[in-house]
Design brief:
4-stranded antiparallel β-sheet; single chain; Rossmann fold; 6-stranded parallel β-sheet; Beta Polymerase, domain 2; elongated; 10 strands; disordered C terminus; alpha/beta
């Protein structure tokens, strides 16, 4: 059964998302849960606006799924108090709702910026990490590959990604709105990853002439500075550069605030810029700017929650593409469910298939005296014999009928070691029956 647990901007403000952010320690704990809690598959997705856990678990009924969900949550946060808080605000999904959701995430339909162009890269990163940990099996492989294909189709076949479609680009637009023109404004970009790069490039497009890039790895700051005609500055000059700036956009993966209120106040006093207007935009989760900077005269601080309001207005032009994007999601979801049905039908009928192939192969080889011919002929005979049963099984699965009794009967009648087959099928892709067997649940 597919299950997921999610905390995103729909249900939690930036302070709450920060509280449950997947740090490196939490990632290790959750991937450890995949082994210790006997979960077949696990993948984690973490962006500035969402943290989501996807798992494929054995369908042992509602109590079993609830136990595994709570085990994941405890691993996620590490204590019962935070676990209760997380369960209270997290969105929990199961079955087909999980598949539909991740396809919508990949399409940019669930992003804070409608059609967000960064989400596919973030999903690919999550996929690579799950692969590297050996926790992405056949179900999540197929599901995430379907999600990536969905996202690419939406990007190329619709106008959902038209115009500005990233947090970084929206932050740059906010700076332009603040100053009216960026031609004479000094803008500092802290962090030269994907978000920082998009921010810097958008600033350049909007007319910024004085862009300062800072990154822990200096070579990356130099590379981006050359690309946008900006200036790279050393990491240890962070507060000095901020003190001399008109605006700064911070987007790093740091686990603690980089911009310290006391240091920034001192640098502004030493540089003679105390009281001068400075707009700080924090695009990071956890937040990278101490909230106390709001108390410094002349400084205005914008976080992801405040940035959301102008984003909503800017995305209206892309809303016309939503129906087509939704149609693509549903089409790809149907393909995934058809794959699930076929895989499940094959799992049910496998004992009969294997028994028939073995008998047909022996008889044809006895008659023809050629083992190669026997192999090919046996496969063709059995495929024709089982075509109609396979179709009937897939239809039954799509109607939501349980095939557990039939699987047990097949094991008893045809499997060489019936119990062995039954246990083996647990690792096979899910049936829609299994996908839908636990009612949709949501945190309060």
């Amino acid at each position: 059964m597919l299950i997921s647990i999610a905390v995103d901007f729909h249900s939690a403000d930036v302070a709450t998302r920060e509280r449950f952010h997947l740090s490196a320690e939490r990632i290790e704990a959750l991937y450890g849960a995949a082994r210790d809690e006997s979960m077949q598959e696990l993948a984690l997705i973490s962006t500035c606006n969402r943290t989501e856990v996807y798992a494929w678990v054995e369908d042992g009924g509602a109590d079993s799924v609830e136990h595994l969900t709570q085990a994941l949550v405890r691993r996620w946060v590490g204590n019962r108090k935070d676990a209760r808080a997380l369960m209270g605000i997290a969105r929990r999904r199961s079955g087909i709702d999980v598949a539909r959701h991740i396809l919508r995430v990949a399409a940019g339909l669930e992003s804070q910026v409608l059609g967000d162009g960064q989400i596919l890269g973030q999903l690919k990163t999550a996929y690579r990490l799950a692969n590297g940990r050996g926790t992405a099996g056949p179900v999540l492989h197929r599901l995430i590959e379907t999600a990536l294909r969905t996202g690419k189709r939406v990007a190329t076949e619709t106008s959902l990604s038209a115009g500005r479609n990233s947090i970084g680009a929206e932050a740059a637009a906010m700076a332009l709105h603040r100053f009216g023109s960026l031609a004479h404004a000094r803008v500092v970009v802290v962090g030269c990853g994907k978000t920082g790069e998009r921010t810097a490039r958008q600033l350049k497009k909007l007319g910024a002439q004085d862009v300062v890039l800072l990154n822990r790895t200096m070579s990356r700051a130099v590379e981006l500075a050359n690309a946008v005609g900006g200036r790279a500055a050393a990491w240890d000059t962070l507060h000095l550069e901020l003190a001399m700036a008109d605006a700064a956009i911070v987007a790093t993966g740091a686990e603690a605030p980089l911009v310290q209120a006391a240091l920034l106040r001192t640098c502004r006093e030493n540089c003679g810029t105390a009281g001068y207007p400075l707009m700080l935009v924090d695009l990071s989760v956890p937040r990278n700017i101490e909230p106390a900077v709001r108390e410094i005269e002349g400084i205005s601080l914008v976080d992801l929650d405040k940035l959301h309001l102008p984003i909503v207005a800017a995305e209206e032009a892309r809303r016309a593409a939503v129906p087509l994007a939704n149609a693509i999601v549903e089409e790809e979801l149907r393909h995934f469910m058809e794959w699930s049905s076929a895989a499940a039908a094959r799992a049910v009928i496998r004992p009969l298939h294997d028994a028939l192939v073995e008998v047909a192969r022996r008889e044809v080889e006895f008659a023809a005296g050629d083992s190669a011919v026997a192999e090919r002929t046996a496969d063709r005979i059995v495929a024709k014999l089982l075509a109609r049963p396979m179709s009937a099984l897939k239809n039954a699965i799509q109607r939501g009928e349980s095939l557990d009794d039939l699987m047990l009967t097949m094991d008893q009648l045809f499997a060489e070691h019936g119990v062995r087959h039954a246990s083996r099928t647990r690792a096979h892709p899910p049936t829609p029956t299994a996908l839908d067997s636990v009612p949709h649940a949501q945190g309060a």
